[in-house]
What we know:
The structure holds 2 protein chains of 2 kinds.
Chain A: E1 2-11, E2 14-24, E3 29-34, H1 40-48, E4 55-60, E5 63-64, H2 70-77, E6 80-83, H3 95-106, H4 111-124, H5 140-152, E7 158-162, H6 170-187, E8 190-194, H7 198-204, E9 207-212, E10 215-220, H8 224-227, H9 231-237, H10 241-254
Chain B: H1 3-17, H2 24-39, H3 43-64, H4 73-113, H5 116-122, H6 127-165, H7 170-178, H8 183-209, H9 215-245
Helix pairs in contact in B: 1-6, 2-6, 3-4, 3-6, 4-6, 4-7, 4-8, 4-9, 6-7, 6-8, 8-9
Amino acid sequence: xxxxxxxxKEFNGAPVLKGISTSFEKGxxxxxxxxxxxxxxxxxxxLLGLHKPDSxxxxxxxxxxxxxxxxxxxxxxxxxxxxxxxxxxxDSLTVEENIMFPLKMFADQPMTEMLDRVNFVLKRVNLTDxxxxxxxxxxxxxxxxxxxxxxxxxxxxxxFCDEPNSxxxxxxxxxxxxxxxEITQEYQIITIINSHDMNSVMEIGEKIVFLKNGVKxxxxxxxxxxxxxxxxxxxxxxSSNLFKKVREAYLNETK
Amino acid sequence: xxxLEHIGKYFLMLKQVFKKPQKWSVFREMLFREIEDLGLKSLxxxxxxxxxxxxxxxxxxxxxxxxxxxPKYLIGFATKRSMILEFAPTFMCVILAGKVGSYISSSIGTxxxxxxxxxxxxxGINSLNYLVLPKIIATLFFYPLLxxxxxxxxxxxxxxxxxxxxxxxxxxxxYGIQLDFNxxxxxxALTKTLVxxxxxATIPAxxxxxxxxxxxxxxRASTQAVxxxxxVIILLNYFLTQMLLG
Lengths: 255, 246
C-alpha cells in the first residue's frame, strides 16, 4: 500500500499541495483527477521522488520514501514502473533496446533471457513485429504500448501513469485503459494514474482522488461518483451535457 | 540566478557525475557511442580546418618575411610553433566547443524537456553519471589524439602550401620544422587539450541538463553553452599559458 500523510509542497512561496492525505491499494487502478493547475502532476512527481515534499510522509509498503537516503531511494525506484505522458522513449534506441534498457541496468541476465522477457512484455501489450523500429516510426498508441511494456518489464510493484491517454483516439484510449487495468489485476500491483480523461475515470477508476487548488476535495470509486453531492466533483465531472445525462440515467436506473 | 549560483550548481553537478557507474557494461557501451559521436565524427572538420590553417600560417609568414637577412627556414619554424602552441590546442578546441558543445547541450536538453531524464531517474538511475561521465571520458581520451593529428596536419598543410605557391623551398621548411624542437611544448599543448576537453564535455552538459521549458529554451541553452564554453576556454588558455610557460 502507498500511504500519503499531510503532504505539503510549494514553489517560490506559492503553495501547490496543501496537506494531502490518502492511500492507494494493491491490485486497484487508482486515479488522480483535477483541473489543470490543481497540483496533480506535482503530487505524482512527489510520489515518484522527482520533487521533494516540504513536509509530509509518503510510505511505500511501510518504507518512508521521504526519509530514505538517495541510494535506498534509487533501489526503491527499481520497483516502480512509470508511463510518461509523451512516452519518454529514448529516440536513439529501438523498441527492443528501449524495453531492455532497465533489464540491462539492473538485471544480471544473459542476453537471450532478456530478449525473451522483452518479447513476452511486447506480446502482453499486443505489439509484435516492432522490435527493431525506432520510436519515431511508431504511432502515438504504439508508443504508449512500448512505454507500458518498458514500465512492466522489471515486474514493478508500483505502476505510475501520467495522462496515458492524451493525444490518443477514443478506441486506442480504451485499449490502453483496459490494458493498464488488466496488468494491474494480473500482477497485483498498485497503479496510480494521473488523468483528466473522464471516460477513463468512469471506466477503470477503482479509486479516485479529486484534487482542487492543491487540496483533496473528494475521494471515492467510479460508482460513488454518480451518487455524490459534493459540489466540487459534480461541477468538474458533469461539466458536459453528455455526462450530466449519463448521471441522470444512472440515478434513474438505480432508484 | 547569479554567476556564483551557476558555478556552485555546476560543481554540485560534477559531484553527481563522478560516481561509480551503476553497470560497467552499459557504461562501456555508452563510452564507445560517445567516442564515435564526440570524437570520430569531428575528425573531418578538424582535418579540414587544421590543414588549411597550417597552409595559411605558412603563406602569411612567407609573405611577411621578405627580408634577405631573415632565413626562410623560419617559415617552417613559425608554422610548427604556432600550430603546436596555439592553433591546434586552442583554436581547434574552440571549434569543437561549437560543434560538440551544441550537440551535447541540445541532446541532453531535449532529453530533459521530453521527460527522458525523468524516466532515467524514476528507474533509479543516476542520470548525470549515466549521461555525462561517458562524455567526459570520451573527450579526455579522444581529443588529445585529435589535436595531435591537427598539429601534424597543420604542419603538413604548410608544406603543401610551399609546394603549391613556390613562396619558399620545401627543404627550408623541413629544416625549420626540425629546428629547436622542444617536446615540452607538445606536453603543454596536450595538457591544455585535456583541460579544454573537460570543459567542452561539462559546460554544455550543465546547460542542457538544467534547461526548463520547451524547444525554444533548448535552443537558447545550446547557444549559451557554446558561448560560455568558448569564454572559459579562452580564459583558461591565458591562465594555463601563464602557469605552464610563464
